Amino acid sequence: MYNYQLYLVTDENQDLEQLEFVIREAVAGGVTMVQLREKHGDVREFIKRAQVLKSLLSGTGVPLIINDRVDVALAVDADGVHLGQSDMPAELARRLIGDDKILGLSVENELQLEAAQSLPVDYLGLSAIFPTPTKTDTVHAWGIDGLAKAVVTSQLPLVAIGGINEGNIKAIADTGAAGIALVSAICHAESPKAASESLLALMR
Ligand code: TZP
Ligand code: MG
């Protein structure tokens, strides 16, 4: 139902100006979804950045997803929330955000993948496919084989995340995953627009 093909996750280390540049370019280059990921700033800063992205994305058809915080998503009327395993339980988040918003959940191993199948979520983020310097606390890497098996068993759409770039995206696309989520391959590209265009072409 939603298009997860090229899912941009923002880099919290980029300032507002860099963030705006990346989002404008990435949308022009064809990203299909944007997640605002803030791990260290205070909630006011989070909300401010969310409001900026909300207005940048309005009218583009690209949904804005908020990482971790249901309250921030509701406060700015974002299109959805992405939860980790230690965030608010999915059932409660769904009750708060309603049926019309997008709800995603990260799964880090097979047990979590199986348990998530009966949850009221729209998609699962398979974290992490490869080890990545962007998130150093991931415990397990699914690899291409793990992803391919997960795609076969999951009833829910899977979005692959972690260490994905132009060099390995084809192997990911071949597994039948619904999409890929990336930070550095787009946020740190000299031209986020050109990077998004070529990543999208490789995904298709
Ligand atoms: N969750 C699992 S890996 C990751 C997140 C947020 C970071 C992905 O970043 P990159 O730079 O695309 O490897
Ligand atoms: Mg999280």
Characterize the structure shown.
The structure is a single chain. This protein is 40% helix and 17% strand. It has an eight-stranded parallel β-barrel, surrounded by five helices. The mean pLDDT is 97. The two termini are 17 Å apart. The relative contact order is 0.17. Helix 2 (43-57) links the parallel strand 2 (33-36) and strand 3 (64-67). Helix 1 runs parallel beside helix 2 (43-57). It is an alpha/beta fold. It binds 4-methyl-5-hydroxyethylthiazole phosphate (TZP) and magnesium ion. The site of magnesium ion (MG) has 4 residues, from loops.
> Which residues form runs of ≥5 with pLDDT under 50?
none
Whole-number total of structural domains = 1
* Beta-strand content bin: 15-25%
Number of helices: 9
Number of DSSP E strands: 8
Binding site for Mg(2+): 68, 87
Binding site for 4-amino-2-methyl-5-(diphosphooxymethyl)pyrimidine: 35-39, 67, 106, 135
Function: Condenses 4-methyl-5-(beta-hydroxyethyl)thiazole monophosphate (THZ-P) and 2-methyl-4-amino-5-hydroxymethyl pyrimidine pyrophosphate (HMP-PP) to form thiamine monophosphate (TMP).
EC number: 2.5.1.3
